[in-house]
Amino acid sequence: MGALTWLRNRSRELVRNNPYAARAMEELAGNVVGTGIVPKAKTGDAAIDKIIDSEWPFFAEAVRHSTAPDFYGMQTLTVRTMGESGEAILRFRPRLVDSGLRIPLQLQMLEADFLDQGARWD
């Protein structure tokens, strides 16, 4: 049960201190995400698709919680975290309509360390 924490720490240490491992994480993220995966609406209604696609840039820029990168940076961060730590957690943070956000939703990336590693499922 304790091996996951040990493996995760070793992997992180390797990426921090070995230039080959750091480059491998950069290449992995670059090949999976590139400059960012841009979604396009396909609801079957061209008018609704146009509205959704026109609102997307506003959401992609304001989706971050605190100082995290925009949506496209979060994609890269997610792939790097998965490669380095084995998993990543994305937390949906609904906001109040009067919060000043055009779309009242933000996303927050969390390290896998927030999961309880000692839980048993038997």
Give an account of the 3D structure.
The protein has four helices and two strands; from the N terminus they run H-H-H-H-E-E. The chain has a two-stranded antiparallel ribbon. It is globular and about 50 Å long.
Helix content: 40-55%
The number of helical runs is: 4
Q: Which radius of gyration do the C-alpha atoms yield?
A: 18 Å
Q: Give the distance, in angstroms, between the N- and C-terminal Cα atoms.
A: 13 Å
- As a percent range, the share of strand residues is 5-15%
Order of helices and strands: HHHHEE
Main sheet strand line-up? 1-2
Global morphology: globular
**What are the low-pLDDT stretches, counting only 5+ consecutive residues below 50?**
none
Q: Class by helix and strand content?
A: mainly alpha
Mean pLDDT rating: 88
The largest sheet is: 2 strands, antiparallel
Strand runs, count: 2
